[in-house]
Amino acid sequence: MSVLIDTVAWVRVENGRILCARPRGKDVFYIPGGKRESGESDLQTLLREVEEELTVAVVPSSVTHAGTYEAQAHGHPDGVVVRMSCYYGDYRGTLAVSSEIDEMAWFSYADRPRVPPVDQLLFDDLKASGELR
């Protein structure tokens, strides 16, 4: 039996690099975002998670779908799949890590091994489209 982890992620690319965050106690970086709460839309999840993690407000009118990816979930038993619905969006405020994040970083394609499998699929697409250096 397979298990699906449903997540939403914020794709923020600047100067050929993508914003990634390492949650407290984790050994890998992730695209900012997280799991949907009961009854939440993708947009609601995106706005809540980005504000919780990076203390900025994503501008709802600027949000556009960047792609949806599925892969084996990092650090979970075989058969646990993560689905990551990715969205671009502008933001207001100053990026800063919250108490649940140990560090944030701007990654190039060379940093691909430092993110989990589902994030690597996004890296591949961004590299192919010329957005990620």
TrEMBL record:
Keyword field contains Magnesium: yes
Domain Nudix hydrolase intervals: 1-128
Keywords, sorted A to Z: Hydrolase, Magnesium, Metal-binding
InterPro entries reported in the protein's UniProt record: NUDIX_hydrolase-like_dom_sf (IPR015797), NUDIX_hydrolase_CS (IPR020084), NUDIX_hydrolase_dom (IPR000086)
One Pfam family from the record: NUDIX
Keyword Hydrolase assigned: yes
Cofactor dependency: Mg(2+)
The family this protein is said to belong to: Belongs to the Nudix hydrolase family.
Protein name per Swiss-Prot or TrEMBL: NUDIX domain-containing protein
